[in-house]
Every structure is written in structure tokens, then in C-alpha cells.
Amino acid sequence: MNKPLVSVKNLTVTYQIGHSFVGKNTYLNAVNDASISITKGSFYGLVGESGSGKTTLGRAILKAAPISKGSVHYDDGEVSYDLSAISKIELKDYRKRAQLIFQDPYAALSPRMTVRDIIAEPLEVMGITKTREETDKRVREIAQKCRLNLEHLRRFPHAFSGGQRQRISIARALVSGPQFIVADESVAALDVSIQADVLNLLKDIQREMGLTFLFISHDLSVVAHTCDHVAVMYLGRLVETAPTSQLFNSPKHPYTKALFSAIPSLDPDHDSQAQKLEGEIPSPTDPPPGCKFHTRCPFAEGICMTEEPKLEVADGEHEVSCHRWRELFNA
Ligand code: ADP
Ligand code: MG
């Protein structure tokens, strides 16, 4: 088996969201006791409804959200960092190796900079290139990889469509030569027809450059079509992780089942076991006791309401956290 590039162990990210003078502060665990291992060279999907903690988990891996408990390790063979104990100098190096592609190609690009300057900025800020010639050469190489027309480097971002702008932000994320990319809802703001183009570009880049991706999306159909491994999140918890084909062929968590059922073209047994997902995701400031999904789960019974299930190995690399998966879905 390939070595993990990123290992997240029992990660909790806690935010304080309210102050009180009588000593009662309000806290929220955006991520709760999450463990994932992202193999080098994989296109790893993270999926779940809005508010489930996906962005926070991605940001913690980039050292852009606090690691309140647990650990995040990065090891690309050249360097190895424990992100809870990383020094300032190491963090500077880590910023070159681990990059974020934003969701919104409109908001992410400065309207007053040319495309060339937008892509070049990280090189200058990080001190990667020394001369203008060197910078220009690197910018041109990356622009070509991202299928941008070199003529366009002199223009401003407003001249471009959503798909082109997203290619500019991808080029900007790649220019420092990262090993690891977090792509957070990177196609969510695009028209469906453009989404496939950008996804293909990301996949091609990943293969050509041997990169590792954490691909975050609220849309299981996008994840199922692009990722080789998937983790499903619910209310800050990981509820199921598996190689995509295994998740697709035999989902073992009622939440994953329900997500598949919502996509008729992806649901392996759409007629027989369709489960509609009803109700709202509970507030993370006041999560229900026991299994966090029990308030919406059609199979919840006694123990589900009192005891929180642990993520356990179901089969090889397939993990699930549900008290009842054996009797319900162990086909
Ligand atoms: P997702 O990306 O799955 O939609 P997020 O990670 O953005 O989920 O958010 C998870 C939960 O954490 C949400 O309830 C959100 O309101 C809360 N949250 C995220 N960032 C912060 C923050 N900086 N301060 C306080 N609460 C936050
Ligand atoms: Mg998000």
C-alpha cells in the first residue's frame, strides 16, 4: 500500500462562538474526533451537506484552522511535518507544498491585477523566483498546463468567463510547485457544462504532476465520478470512508445511503431501498446525544440515541460508524 501523504488522527477543531460574563462560553466543534489518511497520489473526496465541517477539516490540514485536539502529519518523502508543532520556517516551506484552490473564481482574483501578476504573486511573496525572467518563464509553463492562452496573461480577470477564471486560480495555486492541493467546492460556482472541463483539468494535472488532492464537495455525484477514495462527513464526524467503488457498490452508513438515493442515476438499487433524507442537520452548538445522525435516521433505535458509534473497519479500507451497519447493510 502507498504511504499516506497526510495523516489526520482524532482531529477536533473547536471554535468559541459566544462569550458570557457568568463564565459560560459557547463552543462549537466544527470537526470532532476525525481520522483520515490521504494516500500519496490520490484524488481524495470529502463530501457532506453544508455545515458538516468539510472546509474546516481542509483548512486544519493547511494549518489555517486550529488543531484543538488530535494531530495532522504531512510527509511527502522530502519533508515530514507535525502541524501542531511546526516552526515558522517549516510553515513557510509547508505553504509552498500545500495549497488551496478557492470555491469562488469571482471573489478570489484581484480585479486590478493582470492574469500574469495574479499567477506570479505567490512566487514573489514566497521568494521562489529571483528574476523577472525566471518568474515569467514559470508563469508561462503553469498557464500552459492549465490550458490558458498565453495572450491572455496581459489581460485583467473581468475579461474572462467563470471557467477561465477558475483555471487562473488553479494556475495560481500550482505555481509554487505544491505536492498537495485542497480544492474546496472548486466547481460548485460553475455552470454544469463548465464543471466537467475544470474537473478534467484537475484530474489531468493531478496525473501529470503526480499531485495529491483533497477534493471537497457537497455533491456526491461529482465526488463519485472523480475521486478514488471518499470520506463522508456529518455534523463534524466522519461517518464512512472507502475506496469509491466500494462506497458506491455497498454503502454501509444510512446517511451515505440516503445521499446516494437522492441521485437516481447513482443509486444502485433505487427502487427497492430508496431512503429520502428528511429534516435539517442539527445545530453543531447543540448536537444530539448518541449517534449524531439518529434524529434523521430511519433505522435509529435505543443505543443510537445514547451512545456515539466509533468509526470502525468494515472491510479492508472501508470504514463506517454506525451501530447497526452489520445487520442492515452487510450484504
Ligand atoms: P462545510 O464546509 O461542510 O459547509 P464548515 O467547515 O464551513 O462546513 O463549517 C462547520 C461548522 O463550523 C458550521 O456550523 C460553521 O458555522 C462553523 N464554523 C466554521 N468556521 C467557523 C469559525 N471560524 N468560527 C466559528 N464557527 C465556524
Ligand atoms: Mg465548505
What can you see in these coordinates?
This protein has a domain at 4-234: 3-Layer(aba) Sandwich (Rossmann fold), CATH 3.40.50.300. Helix content is 33%, strand content 24%. The chain is built from 12 helices and 12 strands. The strands form 2 sheets. Strands 6-7-8-3-9-10-12-11 form an 8-stranded mixed beta sheet, sandwiched between helices. Helix 3 crosses helix 4, helix 3 packs parallel to helix 5 (162-174) and helix 5 (162-174) runs parallel beside helix 6 (192-209). It is globular. The two termini are 26 Å apart. Bound molecules: adenosine-5'-diphosphate (ADP) and magnesium ion (MG). Magnesium ion (MG) is lined by residues 54-55, 185.
In short:
The chain has 331 residues and is α/β, with parallel strands linked by helices. It is built from twelve helices and twelve strands. The protein has a domain at 4-234: Rossmann fold (3-Layer(aba) Sandwich).
Please outline the helices and strands.
Blueprint: E1 4-18, E2 26-39, E3 43-47, H1 54-61, E4 69-75, E5 80-82, H2 88-97, E6 98-101, H3 115-125, H4 132-145, H5 162-174, E7 180-184, H6 192-209, E8 212-217, H7 220-226, E9 229-234, E10 237-243, H8 244-249, H9 254-261, H10 270-273, H11 302-306, E11 312-315, E12 318-320, H12 325-329
Parallel strand pairs: 3-8, 3-9, 6-7, 7-8
Antiparallel strand pairs: 1-2, 1-4, 4-5, 9-10, 10-12, 11-12
The structure holds adenosine-5'-diphosphate and magnesium ion (MG).
